[in-house]
Design a protein that fits this description.
The structure is a single chain. With 158 residues, this protein is an alpha+beta fold. The protein has a single domain, classed as RNA polymerase II/Efflux pump adaptor protein, barrel-sandwich hybrid domain (OB fold (Dihydrolipoamide Acetyltransferase, E2P), Beta Barrel), CATH 2.40.50.100. It has 3 helices and 10 strands, in the order H-E-E-H-H-E-E-E-E-E-E-E-E. The chain has helices at 3-15, 49-58, 60-76; strands spanning 20-24, 29-33, 81-84, 89-92, 108-109, 114-120, 123-128, 133-138, 144-146, 151-157. 25% of the residues lie in helices and 31% in strands.
Length: 158
Amino acid sequence: MDLKEIQALIKFVSTTGVDEVEITRKDFKLSIKKNAVQVTSMAPMAIPQQIAMPAAPTTPVVASAPETPAAAPAAKNDNLVTIKSPMVGTFYRSSNPDIPAFVNVGDEVKSGKVVCIIEAMKLFNEIESEVSGRIIKVLVENATPVEYDQPLFLVEPA
């Protein structure tokens, strides 16, 4: 299953009444769950669970630090949408250190625009915005570990 098939499956889940889809193949397991409270859904979550579980204990201190400040701005501005990490990995603001970041504070984004990359198991996954609006805050430092469902950006919807 390639990235385009996974993205098509995510769009299918987000536009239909289906709340959860799980696909298991011999080399990976893909589980997509629709969260009614979450405003946005993100790109693929195709990480084998046996690999994702050991990674979690190695980064809890780093991952929990950005979540505490992220809760305060969200409480102040109810109209902001949070773009969250769909997987455990390393957050990168650009595809190469020599080029500018995909998005900066104040930039306008459209639905489908790449906002960052998350590296998981030597695979670079482009994370796309599912909302159109303006980037209000970047909540994660470049080249730092992130956890599943960790807030990455605050977006003011257009």
